[in-house]
């Protein structure tokens, strides 16, 4: 059965733009929305586009310092860097009206959260969101305001007592973890490339939460080169048991597409087919553990044409309750639009041609295998805090 889905959208979301040379190019969001439209996703009777408003200063202030918000506003007007807030760095260049653009992204994620919390829809998405690195008092890792953390904080303000946040971006969800590190109402789970080889250099298994919240920060640090089957083995060994134990009222998920093998900024080896399977697993878990209440956010992803639009169109289709056939061709009109818009050759199919299966961790632990070592390190670090046995 199809699920009700609200997609928070405004064309202004593409104004979050660090400039033509920056890897986080808004064209990836533009191409995703165009591909989804060509497949008729937004014409489905159970899918609606929701209007959004920028997050107010007061709302942003629930997770960000007032002086930082003022610094973002100032930088967006003067276009002068401010090193004390990491504004104007190569990762976080200043751009005109950056506060307005960033506040709109943040407002879209709150709108998605409110759609789910208030019962307007079972699922809601902000595909332009997932800016999970921003810290309380500074920009970080291409992220100005942390819309993911803001959505979680908003849910807590409405009275939610248990919110789970699962981050499948190739980079550690450090900003969200930081903001809720001492809060046992929030379970943060991040599966990412090992900090030994990738920014931001955090997300080790031993980062498990502050006093009173031990075991509520969960990190699965995967070795470079991890492929679909090994990634899914790690996911299956950690995420479902923790979510079933925690029983969140809402599941918030961040879906950076940069774990794909073609991504230029990272070293994991997933396919679009593997990512599609991840979305299916998270959808299932939202139904099983959170009463179907699922907030879906975008994230990283720097192969702008070949990967992100296909991955996130599969994500939106999955969230609508009617997944696309992975073997279908991309629509001709979309391919023509891609050529006109980017000059690149678009992908012909919605698949990378992979068959995605995995062997569950419970079938046996290989102490010589780097992925199994990562799984076991995480389970040993956090499972006991939840009364769970980390052993096989």
From TrEMBL:
Signal peptide: none
Pfam families listed in its UniProt record: Hist_deacetyl (PF00850)
Coiled coil feature spans: none
Start and end residues of each Histone deacetylase domain: 22-317
UniProt key word Amino-acid biosynthesis: no
Pathway: Ketone degradation; acetoin degradation
Keywords: Acetoin catabolism
Family: Belongs to the histone deacetylase family.
Protein's recorded name: Acetoin utilization protein AcuC
């Amino acid at each position: 059965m199809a699920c009700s889905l609200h997609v928070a959208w405004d064309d202004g979301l593409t104004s979050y733009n660090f400039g033509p040379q920056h890897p986080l190019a808004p064209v990836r969001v533009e191409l995703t929305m165009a591909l989804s439209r060509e497949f008729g996703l937004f014409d489905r009777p159970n899918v609606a586009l929701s209007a959004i408003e920028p997050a107010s200063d007061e709302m942003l202030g629930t997770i960000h310092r007032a002086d930082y918000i003022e610094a973002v506003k100032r930088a967006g007007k003067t276009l002068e860097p401010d090193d004390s807030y990491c504004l104007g760095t190569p990762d976080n260049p200043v751009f005109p009206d950056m506060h307005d653009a960033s506040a709109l992204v943040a407002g879209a994620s709150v709108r998605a959260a409110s759609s789910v919390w208030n019962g307007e829809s079972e699922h809601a998405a902000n595909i332009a969101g997932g800016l999970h690195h921003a810290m309380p008092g500074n920009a970080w890792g291409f992220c100005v305001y942390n819309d993911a953390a803001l959505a979680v904080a908003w849910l807590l303000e409405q009275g939610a007592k248990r919110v789970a946040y699962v981050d499948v971006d190739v980079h550690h969800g450090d900003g969200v973890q930081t903001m809720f590190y001492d809060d046992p109402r929030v379970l943060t789970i991040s599966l990412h490339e090992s900090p030994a080889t990738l920014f931001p250099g955090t997300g080790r298994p031993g980062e498990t939460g502050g006093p009173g919240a031990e075991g509520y920060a969960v990190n699965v640090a995967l070795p470079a080169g991890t492929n679909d089957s090994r990634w899914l083995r790690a996911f299956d060994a950690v995420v479902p048991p923790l979510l079933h134990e925690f029983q969140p009222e809402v599941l918030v998920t961040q879906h950076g597409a940069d774990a794909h093998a073609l991504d230029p900024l990272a070293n994991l080896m997933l396919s679009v087919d593997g990512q599609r399977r991840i979305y299916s697993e998270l959808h299932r878990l939202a139904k099983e553990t959170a009463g179907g209440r699922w907030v879906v956010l975008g994230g990283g992803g720097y192969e702008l044409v070949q990967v992100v639009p296909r991955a996130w169109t599969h994500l939106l289709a999955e969230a609508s309750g009617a997944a696309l056939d992975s073997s279908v061709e991309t629509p001709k009109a979309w391919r023509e639009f891609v050529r006109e818009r980017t000059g690149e050759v678009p992908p012909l199919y919605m698949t990378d041609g992979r068959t995605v299966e995995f062997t569950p961790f419970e079938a046996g632990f290989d102490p010589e295998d780097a992925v199994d070592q990562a799984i076991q390190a995480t389970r040993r670090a956090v499972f006991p805090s939840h009364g769970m046995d980390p052993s096989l």
